[in-house]
Backbone:
């Protein structure tokens, strides 16, 4: 064989041997996932991803109607035994504790938390009322703290480790126009995850962050004030904005709820057993494109 071809074959054999030694992806069979904002676009896609791999899912959301519609859809697809719902406000300490207690009754415990419930708000800083600021902090930062604290209690008591995934935002790393309260609250989520990763490591509790860029499809955030404000800044409508984000990204791809779900699956599964305190931007390269 010519030298180059011989080299290629050896290289391939080496790669193949490496692949054989790598742990195979394990399913989530027997695991229980608690998903906040489970009735929203990203939460529903993540729940469906976990259910596909054999997990049981507790969908927790403040919106009872959306929760019912989402649950009906998932039950139809995956069966009634593996899906439960709880109406819960992430800012309500007692409601959060009660929702975990419900999950223990229904499924015997919790292995995975996806902290994802959120809102978005848009206002220049001079027009950001204290109420608006507090709302962002309450739902995004404090809400993430409360659901994580209850998860820690349950995971420690079970003593079998666990995985916590924060759906934060690229806006927690980079500023976005007229969204100071949102961006600051998202930054706090990311730092909370780092602190929890440190605290949980000894008990095998991993904490990682998925940072979506704009996910317009399926998201209720992009239906109200946030959309109007962004449209004013950048474009004209939801489709126009999605196209703008796509064009702006390095990969020229739109980010979909399923893309976030796949990243959240990676951090839930054992293939990420050696990752904690990590941040994965799912942004089609948008962050890099923007900062070039
Ligand atoms: P979505 O509005 O479709 O879903 C959010 C869900 O959270 C809704 O079902 C809502 O009812 C629920 N929720 C809101 N406040 C709550 C509360 N106090 N208690 C319990 N549930 C509450 O939005 P999404 O796009 O699926 O967003 C999910 C997460 O992803 C949010 O944290 C959001 O900030 C983040 N994110 C979204 C985007 C995007 O472009 N869609 C980008 C970056 C980050």
Residues:
């Amino acid at each position: 064989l010519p030298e180059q071809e011989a080299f290629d074959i050896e290289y391939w054999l080496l790669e193949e041997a490496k692949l054989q030694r790598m742990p195979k992806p394990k399913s989530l069979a027997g695991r229980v996932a608690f998903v906040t904002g489970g009735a929203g676009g990203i939460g529903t896609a993540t729940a469906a991803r976990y259910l596909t791999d054999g997990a049981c899912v507790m969908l927790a959301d403040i919106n009872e109607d959306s929760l019912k519609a989402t649950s009906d859809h998932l039950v139809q697809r995956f069966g009634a035994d593996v899906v439960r719902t709880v109406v819960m406000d992430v800012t309500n300490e007692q409601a959060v504790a009660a929702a975990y207690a419900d999950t223990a009754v229904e499924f015997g415990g919790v292995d995975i938390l996806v902290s994802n419930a959120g809102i978005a708000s848009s206002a220049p800083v001079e027009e950001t009322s204290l109420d608006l600021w507090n709302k962002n902090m309450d739902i995004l930062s404090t809400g993430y703290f409360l659901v994580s604290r209850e998860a820690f209690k349950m995971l420690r008591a079970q003593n079998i480790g666990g995985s916590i995934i924060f759906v934060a935002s690229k806006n927690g790393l980079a500023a976005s126009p007229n969204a100071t309260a949102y961006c600051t609250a998202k930054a706090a989520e990311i730092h909370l995850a780092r602190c929890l990763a440190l605290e949980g490591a000894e008990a095998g509790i991993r904490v990682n962050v998925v940072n979506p860029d704009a996910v317009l499809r399926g998201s209720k955030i992009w239906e109200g004030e946030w959309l109007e404000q962004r449209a004013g800044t950048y474009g004209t409508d939801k489709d126009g904005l999605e196209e703008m984000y796509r064009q702006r990204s390095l990969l020229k791809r739109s980010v979909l709820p399923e893309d976030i779900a796949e990243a959240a699956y990676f951090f839930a599964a054992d293939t990420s057993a050696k990752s904690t305190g990590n941040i994965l931007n799912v942004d089609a390269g948008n962050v890099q494109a923007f900062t070039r």
